[in-house]
C-alpha cells in the first residue's frame, strides 16, 4: 500500500522496508525494534521514524541504557520477527489474552481505540455492535479487530491492505471499515474522507518482545516506561503528536 499504514512509502521508508525483509540479527546487548507505518503512533517524517509510540520507545530505551535499531516493514513481518528472532521486539502491539503468553511485554505505551469508519456524510448511525449486523465491513487482514468482530458474530471482509479497503468503501463494495484510532489519515491518503461511526473497543498498546530476551532487560524497559508515565512526560508526547498534522 503506497500510504502510511501496513506498507511503506517514501524513499527513506522503502530503505527501511528492504532492511526488514531480511533477518536483522540483534547484536550482543542490542535490541531490534520492529514496527510499521501507522500514524500517529509510528511513521516516517524527514527520514526518521517518529510518532507517539516511536518517541516513547526511543525514550525508554535511552533511559534504560539499552542500544537498539528500529526497522520498518509490513506488520506481519514485523510481528513475526519479534515472535521468532532473539533480541527482537515489535510495536505498536495491541495486548490480548491470546498474545500475552507469546511475548514479554512492556506496557502501556498507548491506549488506542478500535473504530468503525463510514464515508463522511453517510447518515448511518451505530450505538453498539448489534447495529453493524447486515453491513459489509472491511478490515486489514489478520488485524486484531477482525477476530474481535467475528467473535461478536459480525461478518468481516479482509483485504491485504487498507488501501484496498478504501477503494472498496469509495466504490460501495463495503459499507464500513474497521480500523484504528487516527486512521482517518489512511483514508485521506487514499483520496477519501471518513468519520467515526462507532468506537467498539479500547486497546492497551505495548512493546512485545521475544521471549528469549533477558528478564532484566525487560524490567529495565518497564521501569523506564513506568517512570515516563508517572511523570506525565509520556502523555505530553502523546498529546503533541496527536495535535501535529501527519504528512
TrEMBL record:
Q: Report the SMART domains cross-referenced here.
A: PBPb
> Where would one find the signal peptide in this protein?
1-28
- Does the record carry Lipid metabolism as a key word? no
Query: Does this entry carry the keyword Signal?
Result: yes
The Solute-binding protein family 3/N-terminal domain extends over 30-246
User: Under what name is this protein listed?
Assistant: Solute-binding protein family 3/N-terminal domain-containing protein
Originating species: Haematospirillum jordaniae
Top-level taxon in the UniProt lineage: Bacteria
Q: What is the lineage of its organism?
A: Bacteria, Pseudomonadati, Pseudomonadota, Alphaproteobacteria, Rhodospirillales
PANTHER family named among the record's database cross-references: PERIPLASMIC SUBSTRATE BINDING PROTEIN FAMILY 3, SOLUTE-BINDING PROTEIN FAMILY 3_N-TERMINAL DOMAIN-CONTAINING PROTEIN
Amino acid at each position: 500500500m503506497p500510504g502510511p499504514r501496513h506498507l511503506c512509502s517514501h524513499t527513506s521508508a522503502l530503505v527501511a522496508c528492504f532492511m526488514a525483509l531480511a533477518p536483522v540479527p540483534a547484536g550482543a546487548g542490542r535490541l531490534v525494534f520492529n514496527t510499521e507505518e501507522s500514524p500517529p503512533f509510528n511513521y516516517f517524517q524527514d527520514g526518521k521514524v517518529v510518532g507517539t509510540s516511536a518517541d516513547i520507545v526511543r525514550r525508554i530505551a535511552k533511559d534504560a541504557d539499552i542500544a537498539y535499531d528500529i526497522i520498518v516493514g509490513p506488520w506481519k513481518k514485523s510481528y513475526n520477527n519479534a515472535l521468532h528472532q532473539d533480541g527482537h521486539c515489535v510495536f505498536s502491539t495491541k495486548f490480548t489474552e491470546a498474545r500475552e503468553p507469546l511475548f514479554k511485554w512492556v506496557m502501556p505505551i498507548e491506549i488506542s481505540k478500535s473504530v468503525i469508519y463510514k464515508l463522511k456524510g453517510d447518515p448511518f448511525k451505530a450505538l453498539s455492535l448489534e447495529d453493524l449486523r447486515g453491513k459489509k465491513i472491511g478490515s486489514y487482514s489478520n488485524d486484531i479487530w477482525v477476530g474481535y468482530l467475528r467473535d461478536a458474530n459480525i461478518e468481516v471482509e479482509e483485504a491485504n491492505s487498507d488501501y484496498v479497503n478504501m477503494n472498496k468503501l469509495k466504490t460501495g463494495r463495503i459499507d464500513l471499515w474497521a480500523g484504528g484510532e487516527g486512521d482517518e489519515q489512511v483514508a485521506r491518503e487514499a483520496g477519501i474522507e471518513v468519520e467515526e461511526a462507532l468506537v467498539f473497543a479500547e486497546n492497551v498498546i505495548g512493546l512485545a518482545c521475544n521471549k528469549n530476551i533477558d528478564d532484566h532487560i525487560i524490567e529495565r524497559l518497564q521501569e523506564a516506561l513506568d517512570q515516563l508515565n508517572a511523570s506525565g512526560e509520556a502523555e505530553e508526547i502523546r498529546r503533541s503528536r496527536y495535535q501535529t498534522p501527519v504528512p
